[in-house]
């Protein structure tokens, strides 16, 4: 197992480098000038040129790439053009917030998707199966930004049950420990629901199909013939094998969650990496865009690696050596 993990990490290094290189040249060749944020009709053109030289934007593209790659090897991500702060400090503040949102969304996807999928498979062709199928199709078809706006209108503006934005109340620092925890939960409910519910609907459909295929196998018939209860047959003998394709999906859902977090964080003003990325793209803030894409690539590779390792936990027949 250890050799397999190390081999996967070594293979991932050139993949991440290729992703970062492609992002570098795409963002540099995109139309727009990062110095537009400094533009003022009264500013001296010589001052603008001085700023360009200080930021290294006067150098040829290949020189900029070599300098950026050298800084990256040394662990330096540069200085933000728009925030005038080290990119590392910005990411240190925003990445934990995005990880919180993504982790709870993954939990929602796993719990809701598996539970609904199992119930649909066990109650095949019943009204429960039909309702869950229709509901999953309806939820899966809804755009995330539209769902987020509808939830804000209903639960924040109309009912006043949930906060509409941010990840904590303005007066959170004056609350008790339990109060701050409850306030954070309330702020998490809508963003997590919007980010994870569509994927949960997809997992439910995959879980239903996978479990139906497994319970038709001969060893399941043998277990039932021995007189085992239906719950034991489903949860002890069938569920483990049915979860293998679901683990694959969870590893593949990580990049979708990260891309969806950009929209979700923008809608709910969640102070995470996705919201910072949107602002950096519009401001042509190259260092932040490069850093966030690099971190996202590492997260995607890490998520796929975790999914591969979980195969061996769910199905002991799988060996890596």
Question: How would you describe this structure to a colleague?
Answer:
By secondary structure, this protein is mostly helical. The chain folds into 2 domains: 19-73, no CATH class; 94-314, MetI-like (MetI-like fold). It contains 12 helices and no strands. The protein has helices spanning 2-29, 45-54, 61-73, 87-122, 127-141, 144-158, 177-214, 218-225, 230-242, 244-267, 273-283, 286-314. Helix 4 (87-122) packs across helix 7 and helix 10 (244-267) packs across helix 11. The termini are close together.
Radius of gyration of CA atoms, rounded to a whole number = 24 Å
Q: Could you give a short account of the major beta sheet?
A: none
Distance between the termini: 6 Å
Number of strands: 0
Number of helices: 12
Give me the strand/helix succession. Answer: HHHHHHHHHHHH
Silhouette:
globular
Any guess at the CATH architecture of the largest domain? Orthogonal Bundle
If you average the pLDDT, what whole number results? 82
Low-confidence stretches: none
Task: Indicate the proportion of strand residues.
Answer: under 5%
Topology:
Layout: H1 2-29, H2 45-54, H3 61-73, H4 87-122, H5 127-141, H6 144-158, H7 177-214, H8 218-225, H9 230-242, H10 244-267, H11 273-283, H12 286-314
Helix pairs in contact: 1-12, 4-5, 4-7, 4-10, 5-7, 6-7, 6-10, 7-9, 7-10, 10-11, 10-12, 11-12
């Amino acid at each position: 197992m250890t050799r397999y993990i190390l081999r996967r990490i070594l293979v991932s290094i050139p993949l991440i480098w290729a992703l970062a290189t492609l992002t570098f040249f795409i963002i540099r060749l995109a139309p727009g000038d990062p110095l537009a944020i400094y533009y003022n009709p009264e500013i001296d053109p010589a001052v603008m040129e001085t700023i360009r030289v200080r930021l290294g934007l006067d150098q040829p593209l290949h020189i900029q790439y070599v300098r950026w790659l050298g800084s990256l090897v040394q662990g330096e991500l540069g200085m933000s053009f728009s925030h005038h702060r080290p990119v590392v400090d910005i990411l240190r503040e925003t990445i934990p917030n995005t990880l919180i949102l993504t982790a709870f969304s993954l939990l929602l996807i796993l719990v809701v998707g598996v539970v609904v999928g199992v119930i649909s498979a066990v109650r095949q062709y019943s009204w429960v199966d039909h309702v869950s199928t229709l509901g999953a199709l309806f939820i899966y078809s809804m755009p995330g930004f539209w769902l987020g706006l509808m939830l804000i209108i209903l639960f924040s503006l109309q009912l006043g049950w949930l906060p509409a934005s941010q990840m904590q109340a303005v007066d959170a620092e004056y609350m008790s420990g339990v109060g701050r925890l409850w306030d954070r939960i309330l702020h998490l409910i809508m963003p997590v629901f919007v980010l994870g519910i569509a994927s949960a609907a997809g997992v439910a459909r995959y879980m239903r199909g996978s479990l139906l295929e497994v319970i038709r196998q001969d060893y399941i018939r043998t277990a039932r013939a021995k007189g085992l209860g239906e719950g034991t047959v489903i949860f002890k003998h069938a569920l483990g094998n049915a979860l293998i394709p679901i683990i694959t999906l969870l590893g593949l859902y990580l990049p979708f969650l990260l891309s969806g977090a950009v929209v979700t964080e923008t809608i709910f003003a969640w102070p995470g990496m996705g919201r910072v990325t949107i602002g950096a793209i519009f401001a042509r803030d190259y260092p932040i865009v490069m850093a966030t894409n690099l971190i996202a690539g590492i997260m995607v590779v890490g998520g796929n690696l975790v999914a591969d390792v979980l195969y061996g936990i769910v199905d002991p027949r799988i060996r890596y050596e």
